[in-house]
């Protein structure tokens, strides 16, 4: 199904505010606009039950307004909520190995990295430098639910189990999660790790670390 109709129905909900959650949220936050129209961060149509999710970025925030739609038999809004921003990536660091040497331990393509001795802030007068080389692998930075991001990252890492093992054993490789939840009523929710995730992380011998923030304005 074309994303155009899904986006159209989600945008109509922003304008009509038929759901109480839409009304409440837009009283305290603003959706990012470009050229007079709401900006769409992503349309997720990967659900097997036909659910589509439209993610709208929020001004000065990382989390999203998420509009969930049925696509069968017709495209219609089911409900509205907020979806946290999740950054889920594999990180390895070393005070002995260079970035190039870290990259050479695996066949996987890294997303970003830095060398020991690189300046932390090149524009600052203070000469503060990184004490370790660090390499990150974040194959799916787009808006998505935590469980889906973790699944996709594990699938990516499993393409080179030997290389991941090298990074774990020689550079303390682990999974890092950063999440920004909307703190609308102090009940921000949390993360769910499925049994399959635990088994797959155990097979790769990797740990997981969480950095969580609660952001935004309270509901009125």
Explain what this protein looks like in three dimensions.
- The protein is an alpha+beta fold and 220 residues long.
- It contains 6 helices and 11 strands.
- The strands form 3 sheets. Strands 8-9-7-10-11 form a 5-stranded mixed beta sheet. Strands 3-4-5-6 form a 4-stranded antiparallel beta sheet, covered by helices on one side.
- β5 and β6 form a beta hairpin.
- The longest helix has 14 residues, at 3-16.
- The two termini are 37 Å apart.
- The mean pLDDT is 95.
Mean pLDDT: 95
Question: What's the number of extended β-strand segments?
Answer: 11
What share of the residues lie within helices? Answer: 25-40%
Q: What is Rg?
A: 20 Å
What sequence of helices (H) and strands (E) makes up the elements? HHEEEEEEEHEEHHEHE
Tell me the number of structural domains.
2
Counting DSSP H or I runs of 4 or more residues, the number of helices is 6
Strand order of the largest sheet: 8-9-7-10-11
Shape: globular
pLDDT below 50 for ≥5 consecutive residues: which ranges?
none
Largest pleated sheet: 5 strands, mixed
Protein structure class: alpha+beta
- Please state roughly what percent of the residues sit in beta strands, choosing from under 5%, 5-15%, 15-25%, 25-35%, 35-45% or over 45%: 25-35%
Amino- and carboxy-terminal Cα gap: 37 Å
In short:
This protein is of the alpha+beta class. The chain has helices at 3-16, 20-28, 99-103, 146-157, 161-171, 195-204; strands spanning 33-34, 37-38, 42-44, 51-57, 64-70, 76-83, 85-94, 112-114, 133-137, 174-182, 208-215. Helix 4 runs parallel beside helix 6.
């Amino acid at each position: 199904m074309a994303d155009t109709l899904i986006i159209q129905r989600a945008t109509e909900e922003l304008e009509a505010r038929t759901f109480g959650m839409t009304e409440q949220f837009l009283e305290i936050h603003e959706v990012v606009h470009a050229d007079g129209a709401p900006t769409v961060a992503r349309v997720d149509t990967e659900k097997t039950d036909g659910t589509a999710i439209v993610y709208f970025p929020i001004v000065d925030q990382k989390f999203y307004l998420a509009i969930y739609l049925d696509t069968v038999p017709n495209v219609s809004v089911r409900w509205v909520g907020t979806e946290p921003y999740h950054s889920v990536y594999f990180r390895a660091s070393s005070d002995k190995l260079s970035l190039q040497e870290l990259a050479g331990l695996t066949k996987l393509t890294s997303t970003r990295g830095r060398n020991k001795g690189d300046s932390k802030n090149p524009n600052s007068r203070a000469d503060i430098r990184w004490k370790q080389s660090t390499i990150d692998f974040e194959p799916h930075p787009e808006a998505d639910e935590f469980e889906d991001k973790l699944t996709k990252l594990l699938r990516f890492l499993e393409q080179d189990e030997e290389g991941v093992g090298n990074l774990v054993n020689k550079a303390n490789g682990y999974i890092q999660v950063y999440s920004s939840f909307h703190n609308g009523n102090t009940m921000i929710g949390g993360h769910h790790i499925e049994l399959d995730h635990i088994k797959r992380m155990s097979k790769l011998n990797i740990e997981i670390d969480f950095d969580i923030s609660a952001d935004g304005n309270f509901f009125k």
